[in-house]
Write a structure and sequence with these properties.
This protein is α/β, with parallel strands linked by helices. It has 17 helices and 11 strands.
Length: 387
């Protein structure tokens, strides 16, 4: 009874939207008005775990089946996660989890722990392009596939590509952007990744398209780019800088600069935050070990220090909300296949990840920015964005 009262007392501060809490069959209402959703605790969560990390305590309870959401998971999280500023996080107790090493070996291991789960798993809920980043919905009727096509088209247009140019993709994923750039613009491209699964699949897709004369992919850390001795006309990086760590943002920008020709363009597409934050403990423990979301201002500052001129900034936050909801629907549709690959804890964990990320984008806890930089002055670009 004491544990129940302590849990209810803690949850009462999260009262922006009314919801119902059920513990051992007994219901408690939090907030004013008709409850928007019900949280059913099969087992009370301890105050100490909630105070150490609210997100970790509740996330693990959901993964273990000790916490159930009645109704739509995303709907509940969308109402609940807008209050994350009221969550507790003991950074001192979680120091080893939150502040991990940015050494090459460790970061390679962290990246592979997420992206090398298996291509067959990602194929279950991504679209045919295998794009694991924010789509761009030009029309309400756009499918996920069309949104990913739109996104890559949009990026390539911003880069103002011309036939014969060289393009570097830092964190190239499964290679869709590079392949499209080579086929539609005739550019010579190189992609780098730390994921073995992505590397193998990218090579296979390039060979399938008979583009080996234009494209190469390498298993490479961005820090090794300057040693290659290659300079590119254009660089793109989509959803990769979130893995380099706050201490390495300047190094990342400097490596990009050393790999570019004067006047070259660099498009950086990344999840961002309003202010600097070390990251969510649950996400860092189970989804993206070592991941840190940069603030917009710190990336702009690092770019300026590196001699980059900022040409254009665009926020695509709501596009990522919609992208994640598409992924979540696909995941639910194929959850039976997921269960054949992984245990129930993983199945629930990934469902929580996709739904909670969609909710955090919807609530503006995180953003998605595209920034176009030039190395030094480039006066040859059109003077309007809609080129």
């Amino acid at each position: 009874m004491l544990k129940e009262n302590i849990l209810i007392s803690f949850l009462k501060k999260l009262d922006q939207y009314p919801f119902c809490v059920r513990i051992n069959g007994k219901e408690h209402r939090i907030g004013k008005g008709e409850p928007e959703f019900t949280v059913d605790f099969k087992k009370p969560v301890s105050l100490s775990s909630l105070m150490t990390s609210t997100s970790l305590a509740l996330g693990e309870a959901y993964m273990d089946g000790d916490l159930e959401i009645e109704g739509d998971l995303y709907y509940a999280l969308d109402h609940f996660l807008g209050q994350m500023d009221k969550f507790s996080t003991n950074k001192s107790a979680l120091k080893k989890l939150i502040f991990t090493s940015t050494e090459k070996k460790n970061q390679k291991r962290e990246v592979q722990s997420h992206y090398d789960i298996g291509n067959d798993f990602y194929k279950l809920w991504l679209d045919e392009t295998m794009s694991y980043s924010c789509g761009y919905f030009l029309d309400e009727k756009d499918s996920l596939y069309q949104a990913q096509e739109n996104k890559v088209d949009y990026i390539l247009k911003k880069l103002y590509l011309k036939e014969g140019m060289s393009l570097l993709d830092i964190g190239c994923g499964w290679g869709f952007l590079l392949i499209k750039a080579a086929k539609e613009y005739g550019v010579h491209g190189m992609g780098i990744t730390l994921s073995v699964e992505q590397y193998e699949e990218s090579k296979r897709r390039i060979a399938e398209e008979h583009l080996e004369h234009l494209l190469t992919v390498k298993l490479m850390d961005y820090r090794d780019l300057p040693k290659c001795g290659q300079a590119f006309d254009r660089i793109v990086s989509v959803g990769m800088v979130e893995h380099v760590g706050r201490d390495n943002y300047q190094l990342f920008m400097d490596c990009a600069k050393k790999s570019m020709n004067p006047g070259g363009l660099f498009l950086l597409h990344f999840i961002s935050a309003l202010k600097e934050h070390p990251g969510d403990p649950w996400i860092k423990k189970y989804i993206f070990p070592g991941g840190v979301v940069p603030s917009l201002r710190e990336m702009l500052s690092c770019a300026a220090e590196g001699g980059f001129h900022t040409m254009d900034i665009e926020n695509l936050r709501l596009h990522y909300n919609r992208t994640l909801l598409c992924w979540e629907r696909n995941y639910k549709k194929n959850i039976g296949e997921v269960r054949k690959m992984f245990d129930e804890r993983f199945v629930r964990m990934w469902d929580l990840y996709l739904s909670s990320c969609a909710a955090t984008f919807h609530n503006g806890i995180i953003d998605l920015h595209q920034i176009l930089f030039s190395k030094g002055i480039n006066n040859r670009l059109p003077v309007v964005r809609w080129y």
